[in-house]
Design a protein that fits this description.
about 350 residues; alpha+beta; Arc Repressor Mutant, subunit A; Trna Endonuclease, Chain: A, domain 1; 3-stranded antiparallel sheet
Length: about 350
């Protein structure tokens, strides 16, 4: 057997292997290659493409071949087939599904998180220790929106519980994630090679999903969003703000820095001057700590070193606080609290 592909279409897009202006055309070519591994031809694909895109089909197939998604053979018609991709267990599904969520699901209405003025991070959160067997979702999307005729910014936390087969137990796992998420989904893999899914089981899961407000997605091919079916959309839920905040705060620190920058204009953080932290004479890690400390200081009150306990060492806070004070970026008030300078 040929070596299974290690890349997905979504990953190729994220890596910049496909030029943005050609992304939809290349994806359309990929969708015309049979899922079951049978062969088609470049000629047949060309006939099924819009006339305006036919001249580029050969180049698009080459991009897919170089990315490890398809194989080709010699011949006037140029045979094309998908490279096999084995999903041996649930963990093997994560990178493929995460990439499709980031590149396609997040960009689709009504989600639309990929707009220029919006925020989107898709994180692998399986295995995180969050206080219970079912407390950690497999994939988490943090999405932010601004709406033209509504004030403020809106933050969605969407969790995905991934299962390698239809499994109603996974729905209740997804339901448990709503303690710290606005939307929760069950995402089940059912490859075409298994035939049609059991309609009785699909119906049972769908009814429970509708009753509980959990979303239900059935994916035939994990790395091809065109084969996904959102059978039941998730209902928006309002968890306790502290639970939602604590879940978000426990995610990847680089993602949190990007989220914090996106939230800068929000009232509870407030607008503040841009700061060049590289000018403070600190190493790269301390520059990041300095940015974290600066961005956590509200515009109208002080924050003390205890705010950073369990996140930044107290000694580091005190040392960087002095640097920020000397540079005039903050002022130090009673008991070592930090405030932004008065305007």
């Amino acid at each position: 057997m040929r070596k299974p592909t290690e890349e997905t279409y979504g990953q190729l897009v994220q890596q910049g292997a496909i030029e943005p202006e050609h992304e939809e055309a290349v994806r359309r070519v990929y969708s015309l290659v049979p899922l079951d591994g049978t062969r088609t031809t470049q000629h047949q694909i060309t006939l099924e493409m819009p006339e305006s895109e036919r001249a580029s089909v050969a180049d698009h197939i080459t991009v897919l071949k170089d990315g490890g998604l398809v194989s080709t053979d010699r011949g006037a018609a140029r045979p094309v087939w998908r490279r096999p991709c084995e999903y041996s267990n649930e963990h093997s599904l994560y990178p493929h599904m995460r990439a499709e969520i980031a590149t396609r699901w997040a960009d689709e209405w009504p989600h639309d998180y990929d707009e220029p003025d919006r925020f989107c991070e898709v994180l692998a959160t399986h295995g995180a220790k969050r206080g219970g067997r079912w407390a950690a979702p497999d994939i988490t999307l943090i999405g932010g929106k601004t709406l033209r005729f509504l004030p403020g910014k809106f933050l969605d936390v969407v969790t995905f519980e991934v299962k390698p087969e239809l499994d109603i137990t996974g729905l209740y796992e997804a339901l448990s994630h709503r303690t710290h998420a606005t939307h929760a989904y069950l995402l089940c893999h059912h490859p075409k090679s298994r035939g049609e899914p059991d309609p009785g089981l699909v119906g049972r899961i769908s009814r429970e999903a509708t009753r509980t407000g959990v979303g239900f997605i059935l994916a035939r091919q994990p790395d091809d969003y065109a084969t996904w079916e959102e059978i039941v959309p998730a209902t928006r839920w309002s968890p306790e703000p502290e639970f939602l905040h604590d879940f978000v705060a426990g995610q990847d620190k680089n993602a949190l820095r990007r989220l914090r920058r996106w939230l800068q204009a929000n009232p509870f953080l407030g607008e503040r001057p841009e700061v060049d932290f590289s000018a403070l004479g600190l190493d790269v890690e301390d520059q990041r700590r300095a940015e974290d400390i600066y961005c956590e200081i509200p515009v109208n009150r002080s924050v003390g070193w205890k705010h950073f306990q369990g996140w930044i060492d107290t000694a580091d806070v005190e040392r960087i606080r002095q640097k920020l004070k000397e540079a005039g970026i903050i002022r130090v008030v009673r008991a070592g609290g930090m405030m932004l300078p008065s305007r």
